[in-house]
UniProtKB/TrEMBL annotation:
Leader peptide range in chain numbering: none
Family: Belongs to the autoinducer-2 exporter (AI-2E) (TC 2.A.86) family.
PANTHER family tied to this protein: TRANSMEMBRANE PROTEIN, TRANSMEMBRANE PROTEIN 245
Coiled-coil residue spans: none
Subcellular location: Membrane
Transmembrane segments: 9-26, 59-84, 187-212, 218-245, 252-269, 289-317
Predominant location: membrane
Name by which UniProt lists this protein: AI-2E family transporter
UniProt organism field: Halosegnis marinus
Cellular component terms per the entry's GO annotation: membrane
Superkingdom to which the source organism belongs: Archaea
Bilayer topology annotation: Multi-pass membrane protein
Length: 335
């Protein structure tokens, strides 16, 4: 038995070395692989439901991976198409800004020239469009790789877990399961809650911006939905920018409406209605910890950081909870 355990440790060491080597050699697609693993974590309960309904492992994995691939592809395509069609409206909005903005407070008057900022901003927007077009083939290849990895992970999801439990001594299996539960709940909170709230924000924002008479309501709604993934900031920053632009343009009434009405229905309503209804499906991570993980992850790792950062913070919090409790993983800690 001892020889068998030693053999498991040796194999685990070999696996660790191979993982480090693979990470270095395949670092260009590490982000894609990470997203595939985290999405597979979230989709595992759906896979089990499909199996209970009589579908085979291959069919269930194919259905889920194809559905996710389609959703991601359609979302990216619609976003790119919307921004491309509305690029003229965005540039026209910038060109309509006055050459200077004058603010008077008491006896002091401050004037800010805006013409020096408009041209660099327009050039930056056009540069982003060119960069996106150039990277489209690489993005398509990574999407295909994402779908293939997701299919493989959903086809045989238990292998990684069994490998970990075979290496870890039996008395520590409870701790492993605690970290597994925290990982699952955190990813549910990031993907399911945020995605549902962002989708609701998009729909509400599209109606609101259309009712207020903005030229590009769909584009603005897409921006509001994306900003919903940024903690604390959220779509409020977009509403603030729109209010300032309206004030500068002399449309004070709409500025007040977008700040007050928009702040209520776009900024607060999705969080007040959608998030509480889905909160029971995910463990609660305090906003302060989520913001630390999100900010640090994005600054350190880029796009992958908005998932990896909060997940790392959640696992650290779980380790602290284990140390502050009995340490055997038998009691689920709450933050």
């Amino acid at each position: 038995m001892r020889d068998g355990l030693r053999r498991q440790y040796v194999l685990a060491g070999v696996l660790l070395v191979l993982l480090v080597a693979a990470t270095f050699l395949l670092r260009a697609v590490i982000g894609t692989a990470f997203f595939a693993v985290t999405v597979a974590y979230v989709l595992y309960p759906l896979r089990e439901q499909l199996l209970d309904r009589g579908l085979s492992r291959r069919v269930a994995a194919a259905v889920l991976s194809s559905a996710v691939f389609g959703v991601v592809l359609v979302t990216l395509a619609l976003t790119a198409f919307t921004l491309y069609r509305r690029r003229g409206a965005i540039i026209a909005l910038l060109n309509d800004l006055p050459d200077a903005v004058t603010v008077t407070v008491g006896e002091m008057t401050y004037t800010q020239q805006t013409d020096a900022l408009v041209e660099p901003t327009i050039a930056a927007l056009r540069g982003v469009a060119v960069d996106v077009a150039r990277s489209a083939p690489v993005l398509a290849l990574k999407l295909l790789l994402f779908a293939i990895l997701l299919y493989g992970l959903l086809l045989r999801p238990g292998r990684a877990g069994r490998a970990v439990l075979n290496v870890v001594p039996r008395e520590y299996h409870g701790i492993v399961r605690r970290f597994h539960g925290r990982t699952r709940d955190t990813l549910y909170g990031i993907y399911v809650l945020q995605a549902a709230t962002a989708a609701g924000t998009f729909l509400i924002a599209a109606v609101t911006f259309y009712a207020l008479g903005y030229d590009a309501p769909v584009t603005l709604a897409v921006a509001a939905g994306v900003l919903q993934f940024i903690p604390v900031v959220g779509p409020g920053v977009l509403l603030g920018v729109l209010a300032v632009v309206d004030i500068v343009g002399g449309n004070v009434v709409r500025a007040v409406l977008v700040a007050v009405v928009g702040g209520a229905v776009v900024g607060l309503l999705p969080d007040a209605v959608i998030r509480p209804r889905l909160a029971s499906y995910a463990a609660h991570l305090p906003v302060s910890l989520y913001f630390v993980g999100f900010t640090g992850g994005v600054l350190s790792l880029g796009a992958i950081g908005f998932i990896a950062g909060p997940l790392a913070v959640a696992l650290v919090a779980e380790a602290v909870a284990l140390l502050s409790g009995n340490g055997d993983g038998t009691e689920q800690a709450t933050l």
